[in-house]
Structures
1.
Amino acid sequence: MGNCNKKGKPSRPSVRDPINIRGDKENKVSYAKVVLIGNSGVGKTSIAQRFIEGKFDENNKNTVGASYFQKNISFKDGSSLCLYIWDTAGGEKFQALAPLYYRVKSKYIINIFQNAHAAVVCYSVTDDDSLKQIDTWLNKLDEHGNIAKMIKVVVGNKSDVDKSERRVDLKEGKLFAQQRDLPFFETSALLNDGSIDELFQKLASQIKQSFTKEELHATV
Amino acid sequence: MKSKQKLLIERISDSSYPPKPFKQLPQKSKDFSLLTNQLSPKCQVQSTTSNSAFFNLDSSSLLIKPPFKEEKEISQNNSIAKKPQFKAAFISSKESPENKLSIQKIKSIPKALKITNVISKESLLPRKLAPPSGRQKKQMSVYSSSYHGNSDSKYLLNKHFDRLTTRIDKKFRDDKKPASTQKSRTLITELIIERVSMPESYRSPRYQNDITLINLTEFNASNTQGNYEPRLTSPKTSTRSIIKRFSNLQDKSCGRNTQPQYIETQESNNTNATGTGMAQISVSNGNQSEQFDISHQSSLIAGVEALSQKQSSTNSQNLAHQASDLLNSQTILGINRTLSFLKGKLQESKGPHHLRSKKRSQCDCSKQQYYDTSMCENCLIWIQIIKNKTRQNFDFQVIKKKYDQLNDREMVVDDENQIARDLFRTFQDIPYFSKDSDGYETLNRVLINLCKIDQSRGYIQGMNFIGACLLLHSDEVLTFYLIETLLKEYELNQVYGQEFLGLIKHFKIMEGLIQEKMPDLGDHLRLNQVEIEVFSSDWFISLFTSSIPLTKTTKLFTAFFKDSWVSIYKIILMILKYFKKKILQINEYGDILIALKSNEFFPQNQQSFDIKKSEIFWDQIFSLMDIKFGDVDEGFIQQIRIKYKIK
């Protein structure tokens, strides 16, 4: 997994003031929180795995709760952005009320969409229902996300399947994203065709454009 | 024979006998061989043949005083066997009048079995006793029919043999001195007598191994008598060495990696140099195991097959003749029946996997399989713990009835699609759970039936892993029972319930526990805004089953059934303790999370993963958690809840 700390950076003793810690890193690394959402079984974990480890695991397990990944992305100008990727469970029950999404703590609610800079909304090209459900996911983002300029991307996964298995055409997906004014990607986690790297590269550069440096330090 | 039966029946019918079976073993244990004889269908015919065997064995001077010490040890170790109540729970409720009668009688069996654990030399000698009276004959027939008709009695009988086999296994493992060979022989001889005088239909498939062992030993016994030309039998060729060679062969032909347990002397595997008759055939089987493609237990069949093949070849006709003589011999009890039984088994089966009975659980965690319920030893322990904890009766038939009713109930289950999606991602690296195999379908049914009993909860992701782990050690009905118990009695329902109130409660308790036990770490986590739920939610939801290596889930469930959620708290505390040093040096939210869910120890989402290293880690966690956090118990949790005001 990518280590977001730059090499040679000494580990500092814990400081009582958390704001101070963040302030220290201002000139070094920027952070962005990305959530992977979408129906169950569309391949969210596979996308994250392909991006982080460059592998595809056929014996994948369904995600319980959420799992966390991080990876550093370097840009041509020498700067870099560390992506905190939250891979969530897509099951119906957690969609409604995941403990990770909600935490009643004194008076305010923290959820997984809180402070998310970007959301990758996935569907599977073999499952037309998962495309229809994207609207539900987008509504959830609007409802629970607290960052107005959150970047949303629509991703059709499993582009490697045969034509006979395909239920959603490339055109159909593109049109769907266009209608909602969102960027669109079709990816394959199975094939090492670079489609997923491209997705995250473009996402990262867009995050960098849309958010100021200060905004890219708010985490979790 | 009749007189012996009388004595036996007197003892069986006397319900108060014996008051303390284990202590009185030496005196009371003489009649088991007779008991089994009576229970066999051809009791009259058999009794004569078995007597001749007894004499043979006796004259071969194999027998010495029975090892009472071992008996005591085993009886102490085998805590489950000590509890006849539990056995009685398995007694079926088949409703034919004959069975009803037999069920009543069966309840006295455990006692009868217990007292006959050791067969002394004297028991093998015929004794003069009065013929049974009419009443006793009637009782005898009832008793006998119970053994024919009722499968539960088979279960009990098999259980007894399990105990005996364990004892022999232990004996061989523990014995390092050649001097004790005699004792081992005695033990084996006991086994021979008991096993051979038991009708084959009562043997569970697991005993195919032992049957071959018996035949071998018997042959060895008769060999020393000089019935067969002892071509190269050296006086040093002990029973054990033959068994050792045998187990080697089995390992070879099974393709298993298990170490032979009976190692003592180095024996060459040369086909023509050592051994005679049976042993020789087996050796040739070892050499030709690829040809026969028999990879399960019945090396005996392999021997016979080898024999038939050898018969056609001109070179080894002598051997074939010898062996067929051996097989036809009357001195070897039940060997023909054994053979036909095994052959039948072989014909039924299509491959090595199918040699396994359907009644066998999928795990390799214990040698013992319980015939009628296909639960392994661990599952038995879980049920026992549940029984003690909830103070509810465990009646397999009742559960089965309930399950069958659920199975028949036609209902629209909302989560069917989700279950199908998740089954496709449940331990796909294990063939049993791969798509279109037995485990896949079974787990599907179990999960759907669980949804049927509570539609509002339905299926929660994570239940699939719990179900799969339990299914490995039991069968469909038991898995359903265990998960249902987890949901109802172990408050898993609250964790899965609306708004996840149970889960939030666990998070808060965990937070308090960390603060109490490791305040520095608690401060550090809070400072870096690492909440408990971000790293532990899947641990709570799937009870670690989706996170730890599958082989370690048995320990986990034993701990969880015993201590409920306290065990999960302890495990999490142990994990935090293990990584504490590392975490305290990290001041980065993401890096802390990654350190906590270290790739090295959590197999999820990992392709190249050192499973052994991970298993060692989890072994450490499970063995140390009661030492390091022994004071964490229900009372302690209650204090935490009061202190931190957790409802």
2.
Amino acid sequence: MHKNYSLYINKISKRFGKQLLFRDITFNAETGESFFITGPNGSGKSTMLQIIAGVQKSTEGEIIFSSEKKEIPAEERFTHFGFASPAVNPYDMLTASENIRFAASGVNGDRIDEMLHLFGLYPHRSKHVGLYSSGMKQRLRLIIAMIDSPGILLLDEPSSYLDSSGKDILFSEIEKIREETIIIIATNEHEEIKLCGKGIDIAEQTI
Amino acid sequence: MQSRLFKNLRKDFLIEFRNRSAMNISFAFAGITTLSVSLACGGASLTPQIHSVLLWIIIFFSGMSGLSHIFIREEEERTSLFLALHSDAENIYLSKLIFNIILFACITALVTPLYLFFMQVMPVYRLYFILTASAGSLAVASITTILGAMVAKAESRGSLFTVISFPVMIPVLWISIQLTSDSLEGGSPPELRSLLFLLAFSGVIISVSYLTFKFIWTEQ
């Protein structure tokens, strides 16, 4: 049975030196909700996702992430998150299976094979990832993000590099897991925005 | 925690054995410099002090060329975000530290017998000599791991690493050279206090690094 998660983003701001990227971003989401973050290039969509995932610090504001009403500390957040982004690069010198085993916690070989089959990478599972095309790497990123059935799935431009069959697989997987996961998608693609119930324009700060 | 540490270590060793960049650089440097020194000296009789200085210069620079690689590779190949997403900072630090200790132990185990063989020297106090080489290597590996993490986040990484390592490394090199010289020379046995200093120094560096690593690793 899946746990209920809730995420509360409270007045998050990010500055790089003197340059303000975004300010006072506030929203919340609970298990079963899908949320998009949109905005022009350079507005900080990817940075916002990395702040939520706990791999970057915000300049101001707080993120409260809880499971069954019990707050999860920032340093433990990574065990509850799945994150796929063009900036997340698996190791080129490892195979797809090795990368998945490295990233996943407590999944067996059958689950790995199932996901590799689903995303069409099973025939390429023993190749070094350095030999993969951009689309194959993106499929691998999505497998790694989803394989642990995370409580929160953070997707940064998830359909980038994907062909039409890759997009179909991605969208059908999102449909399957949306009831038991918080899904946050950073995107400007209408197809991806349509998957979400609500969202925010990070540049305009409008929900 | 153990499982995550083991996964990180396994990953680092798998990648290292597949491209062998750090090992090749370090071992090539160690072999070339040892051979060069022995050829240049050409059978000249050197004092134990000179032998120990030469030995530690070779060990130090062999390590410098490979030890920073473990963190710099994550930044250069843009895999640091992937690593950060799937492991907590403490496990990342510990796995990189263990990797560097093992790598530096291999470098020392290669350089030291080569040097003794080519230069035709034999330590009088063999146990002290081995303990000094081990404790000195541990101290060098513990310093270079945390400095490697800092340098990996900076620009112009390669040259910066050796430059910023040197001041922190001075006490370690100084004590290691003195102890090595004493164990080569004979006379009164080397001081146990100095050996303990090297171990304590490593302990302090590792403890402080463990506690502060997350501030270096997490993007501010």
